[in-house]
Write a structure and sequence with these properties.
Number of domains: 1
CATH topology: Muramoyl-pentapeptide Carboxypeptidase, domain 2
CATH class: Alpha Beta
CATH architecture: 2-Layer Sandwich
Strand content: 5-15%
Oligomer: single chain
Order of helices and strands: HEHEEHEHEHHEEH
């Protein structure tokens, strides 16, 4: 009898997990977001917050495995993939994170409150770009999913992961490839990353820059539009669930 009870328990837990997953997927679509791979199946997805391989060290997404993005933003990422493939057919974009519900943002903040990592995580009161579906964390990988050397892993929150050298401005003229290249060279000169990593990172920046997306100053993997958060909040819908 205990085996039957145990089996029923497992089935119940599985059913609840599946229901939660379906709810998240439905919510994403209700908010008008799209599955990036439905637009371009060659893009790889490995959501790091569905694993423990992230700066929080916890699985924050559960069963969510799909990278959802605002549709027009997703189309830019698709175009970046096509640009990359046209130059380097052996490479592909590999997405680590995309749209993030506000509830998850708040959980992440609670995990780091009172620590040195607190300043890296928005508190979830108004939402950051991921919470509007208009930010993507990604890298370049080979066809089998092996990420290129970018100098640091995803979610490494050290100086070596920075893409500084540009002001926090919504003026795209301040976000030039020359400025990014200069800063990468300074990281190499300091011994923080290798020449190979700098070249790979610059390739990623160049591809994304061609579709109007630029890296966040602290994270080489995070790309967004060059618009202010005020404009972002006015233009897009907050994933308030």
């Amino acid at each position: 009898m205990s085996r039957v009870v145990a089996l029923l328990y497992v089935m119940l837990v599985t059913s609840v997990a599946m229901a939660q997953q379906i709810d998240v997927d439905n919510k994403m679509r209700e908010y008008g977001l799209v599955d990036i791979r439905s637009l371009e199946s060659s893009i790889l997805v490995e959501l790091k917050y569905s694993t423990e391989d992230n700066f929080v060290g916890k699985d924050m997404y559960g069963e969510l495995e799909i990278a959802y993005l605002e549709e027009r933003f997703a189309e830019r990422v698709v175009e970046a993939q096509r640009i990359l493939k046209s130059q380097y057919p052996q490479y592909t974009l590999l997405i680590y994170d995309a749209a993030r519900p506000l509830s998850v943002q708040r959980q992440m903040r609670r995990c780091v409150e009172g620590t040195e990592l607190e300043s890296f995580v928005a508190d979830g009161t108004r939402g950051g770009r991921h919470n509007y579906g208009v930010a993507v964390d990604l890298t370049i990988a080979t066809a089998d999913g092996t990420a290129l050397d970018m100098g640091t892993p995803f979610d490494d929150l050290t100086t070596a992961s920075s893409v500084k050298g540009t002001p926090d401005s919504s003026d795209i003229s301040t976000r030039t490839i020359e400025v990014y290249r200069s800063y990468l060279n300074s990281l190499v000169a300091q011994g923080l990353i290798t020449i190979t990593a700098a070249k790979n990172r610059l390739l990623l920046i160049e591809v994304m820059h061609k579709v109007g997306l630029v890296p966040y100053r602290r994270e080489w993997w995070h790309f967004e539009e060059v618009i202010s958060m005020t404009e972002t909040r006015n233009k897009y819908k907050l994933l308030d669930f």
